[in-house]
Design brief:
The complex is a heterotrimer. In chain A, the strands form 2 sheets. Chain A has a 6-stranded mixed β-sheet with strand order 6-7-8-3-9-10, sandwiched between helices. In chain A, a hairpin with a 2-residue loop joins strand 1 and strand 2. The relative contact order of chain A is 0.18. By secondary structure, chain A is an alpha/beta fold. Chain A contains 11 helices and 10 strands. The longest helix of chain C is centred in the N-terminal third of the chain and has 32 residues, at about 75-105.
């Protein structure tokens, strides 16, 4: 099915007089792998938080797969087909890997019977089987029962993706998935995201690592100071003087590295 | 069973019931320092429903109705109380317990400050049966998807929200069901001792119950069981050993050691006796062979 | 006139609650946890006062009696109380705050300090019980029945002095917090505990100071309580502290002057409740009020909305 999974129109957000997001509009095509980039403080994570309803929007609209989700509460958005990972890993530290993944199924358990089914006591049930299968598919079947707090960082990152995917989203939001990963872990993560994309799920990713973005994404939206300054393919972004200036024009050392990556 | 052992068993069973009542909200990260309030309500309600000068219902019916009554009160107050956070919730539940106790003492038809005799007697078998049922129920409850949601809320409520967990409703359920269990515990107390006196359900009781739960650990359903057993049985054993050794002072000072133990626990094992990791290790140890066989098969 | 007399009695009682309420509010405001060692400190100070004055200390009774003489033994009581509370406060600080802080990052995110402080409450109550029993203990007031009357109103001189003392101490404290270097450090910890260190505040040296200040407030309050009401027991701390907590909530968590107003108010409310509906019913108005405030306006009269929102 062609068309847009996500349509963001005229988004505005201020925190106490400070305009963080100013008139941002962009579309995410179905099946695409779109990146949201920009220097530090450009408002990328804020956009994610607006999309998932962590903050209410001041103005503008968010349409997900044809339904307007601008004002619906966070907890109902996952039902509309949106799921996310976090900049700092936010798995449940006291739950096992499989339990973390089963949390991702929560929105699909509608009836009281499903809510009160003893997942933890019945050894074989379809929820657990599904979660274990999803982990196995992602190459994470060696630690289903382990408490996630004790697992390596890269593994936790991938578990976050599996947890988000098991809610069966149409749009997967990833907030700096590659941050803090070494090369091997980055490649493993990328392979997992290729799998995700191959089954038709749209990916919207916030990322600093331009190398990662160029390898993964086919479309890039560039933000600076809460405004959209450019939009196009990775190659176009790479050549764009506007983007280069945005990165070099700030004094942040972090964005200097970003510019080096973009150049 | 000697009278002494039986008396200790009763205390243990009651502690276990109370601990699970406070565990359910604690598992979702809510500290309830108002256990005594729910226990008072349950004890008086069940006693009054059963007594000849009350409604004269059979004991079992009275206990169930009392439980529902306490659940209804718990539900009603959970809506405002769960709006409060952190220290405010601790204080609000604490205030609730004090109000209940203050009202109970002033109800003439409930015997006022002198307390209220309760007609029907619940023998030790019933007390134990109820405690076992409560433990089993809580193990079941925590293993459900709802239990998983509660544990997720404990760890990170905002993420739970993003995965579609109705955080508010889940908390109301945990608080209300917890209140019902505390009410049931109070009902059992009243029927076993055949006497209810609001002053026995005081702040210290609420504090001790919360300590059982926090020291036992809120991460798994084993926590409150271990906490309650540990902290009711160990001081008794300590007392016996001290008496054997001929030191009355040591026997009387067992709570000093209990307090020191709590303080040290918080230094060396702040997440409680039973943690999730520990449960896994035990399970792995017990089912070591089966686990290896399964891994080999895969 | 009788009502006015009750009002005066209420203010006197409230003066004692004020100091305990301020102690609670300081710890919540600075360190964001409900410190249950406060009742223990109050009770312990009262007990040391009693033990010194009645020659019941485990050791040193004869020495104190010969040094201070029978008429001034109450001064020895004050000294013993204050010194012992300072020592105890520092020990408690170690185990409720410092270790957790060092090991698990921001201690206020967890229930640990709350649980440890409950542990200390149990330790102190049972220490006192094992030493002196749990029955009420009496002392003879060193000032007798010193009173004066205006019209038909009776004023107890020790009570007037203790009210003045308590308000004076709180005034001094608020001056310290507002005007001195120590106060600036305290405020920076209260506002941004994580960045206070970066701003050059030595948190690990300031926190013990907070504990000693709260300990002193409890000690002075406990001493004055013993002198004025002459009857104490091992649970007196719980009784007083629970009412003081109500006062603190009324004033708003973390606000010193709020705790003063709240403490005085609950003192008056308690006396009037006893006078109008009887001692048995006194819990209902106080705790009912507290519950209503917590639900309707959790910030109390003058509180700051950010305080106490953390996990515990």
């Amino acid at each position: 099915m062609a068309g847009n999974v996500l349509a963001v129109t005229g988004l505005h957000k201020s925190f106490g007089g400070l305009k963080v997001i100013d008139e941002v509009s962009f579309d995410v095509a179905r099946g695409s792998r779109t990146a949201l980039i920009g220097p530090n403080g450009a408002g990328k994570t804020t956009i994610f938080n607006l999309l998932t309803g962590v903050y209410p929007v001041d103005a503008g609209s968010v349409v997900l797969a044809g339904s307007d989700i601008t004002d619906i509460p966070s907890k109902d958005r996952v039902v509309h087909g949106m799921s996310r990972s976090f900049q700092n890993i936010r798995l449940m530290p006291h739950l096992s890997t499989v339990e973390n993944v089963m949390l991702g199924q929560h929105a699909r358990a509608h009836s009281l019977g499903q809510l009160l089914f003893p997942l933890g006591l019945v050894a074989r049930n379809r929820w657990r089987a599904e979660a274990e299968a999803a982990l196995a598919e992602a190459g994470l079947d060696s630690y289903p029962g382990e408490v996630v707090a004790n697992l390596p960082y890269g593994v936790q990152k991938r578990i976050e993706v599996v947890r988000a995917m098991i809610s069966r989203p149409q749009l997967l939001l990833l907030d700096e998935p590659a941050a803090g990963l070494n090369d091997v872990e980055t490649r493993q993560l990328q392979a997992l995201l290729e799998q995700v994309s191959a089954i038709g799920v749209t990916i919207l990713v916030v990322e600093h690592d331009m190398h990662f973005v160029r390898n993964l994404c086919d479309h890039v939206v560039v933000l600076n100071f809460g405004r959209k300054i450019f939009e196009g393919s990775p190659e176009e972004v790479h050549r764009s003087p506007v983007v280069l200036e945005a990165y070099l024009g700030t004094d942040e050392p972090g964005s200097g590295e970003g510019a080096a990556g973009a150049a | 069973m000697s009278g002494y052992v039986e008396a200790q068993l009763i205390i243990l069973c009651l502690s276990v019931i109370y601990a699970y009542a406070i565990f359910l909200p604690a598992a979702s990260g809510q500290l309830n320092l108002g256990a005594a309030g729910f226990i008072t309500l349950g004890a008086y309600a069940s006693g009054w429903l059963n007594n000849a000068d009350g409604l004269g219902l059979p004991m079992g019916v009275g206990m169930v109705l009392a439980m529902l009554f306490v659940g209804a009160i718990g539900f009603a107050i959970s809506l405002p109380i769960l709006r409060t956070r952190g220290v405010y919730m601790v204080l609000a539940t604490f205030a609730f317990a004090e109000v209940v106790s203050g009202i109970a003492i002033n109800m003439e038809f409930l015997g006022g400050a002198a307390g209220m005799p309760v007609d029907a007697h619940a023998p030790v078998e019933i007390v134990v049966a109820v405690a076992v049922a409560v433990v089993l129920f809580c193990f079941y409850f925590m293993s459900t998807r709802l239990g998983l949601a509660l544990r997720s809320i404990h760890d990170d409520e905002n993420v739970a929200l993003l995965f579609g967990v109705d955080v508010r409703t889940a908390r109301v359920v945990a608080f209300t069901v917890g209140g019902m269990l505390a009410g049931l515990g109070g009902a059992v107390y009243g029927h076993h001792y055949n006497y209810v006196e609001a002053q026995t359900f005081n702040v210290l009781l609420s504090i001790y119950i919360l300590l059982y739960v926090l020291l036992g650990g809120t991460q798994t359903a084993w926590g409150p069981l271990v906490g309650a057993v540990f902290f009711t049985v160990i001081p008794e054993i300590f007392r016996h050993v001290a008496i054997e050794m001929g030191s009355d002072w040591l026997a009387d000072s067992r709570f000093i050691f209990f307090g020191m133990f709590i303080v040290l626990m918080m230094v060396v094992r702040p997440e409680g006796v039973v943690t999730r990791t520990m449960q896994d290790r035990c399970a792995g140890f017990l089912s070591g062979r089966r686990g290896r066989a399964r891994r080999a098969a895969e | 006139m009788l009502l006015l007399q009750q009002l005066i009695n209420g203010l006197m009682l409230g003066g004692l609650y004020v100091m305990v309420a301020v102690a609670f509010t300081l710890i919540i405001g600075m360190l964001n946890f409900l410190n249950f060692t406060i009742p223990a400190l109050f009770m312990f100070a009262a007990m040391m006062m009693w033990a010194t004055m009645t020659g019941n200390l485990p050791f040193g009774n004869d020495f104190l009696l010969s040094a201070f003489g029978e008429h001034h033994i109450w001064i020895a009581g004050v000294v013993v109380s204050i010194v012992s509370i300072c020592i105890v406060s520092l020990i408690i600080e170690r185990f409720t705050y410092r270790y957790m802080k060092a090991k698990y990052g921001d201690a206020t995110e967890h229930a640990l300090p709350l649980v440890s402080s409950l542990g200390f409450l149990i330790i102190f109550e049972h220490l006192v019980i094992s030493q002196w029993g749990s029955d009420p203990l009496q002392i003879e007031s060193p000032f007798g029945d010193a009173t004066f009357t205006i019209g038909s109103l009776i004023f107890s001189i020790p009570q007037i002095i203790s009210l003045a003392l308590s308000l004076g101490i709180v005034f001094l404290l608020s001056h310290i917090i507002r005007r001195t270097k120590l106060g600036r450090a305290l405020r920076s910890i209260a506002e941004r505990p994580d960045t206070a260190t970066l701003m050059g505040v030595d948190v690990l040296r300031i926190v013990p100071v907070v504990y000693v200040i709260t300990g002193l407030l409890c000690a002075i309050s406990g001493i004055l309580f013993t002198i004025n009401y002459t009857s104490i027991d091992a649970y007196i701390g719980d009784t007083v502290a629970t009412v003081a907590i109500a006062g603190m909530v009324l004033g708003g968590l973390g606000n010193v002057w709020g705790a003063v107003v709240g403490g005085l108010f609950v003192g008056i409310l308690e006396v009037f409740s006893i006078y109008i509906v009887g001692a048995d019913f006194v819990k209902v108005p106080i705790w009912g009020l507290l519950l209503l405030i917590l639900v309707l306006k959790p910030t109390g009269l003058f509180g700051h909305s950010a305080i106490g929102k953390g996990k515990f």
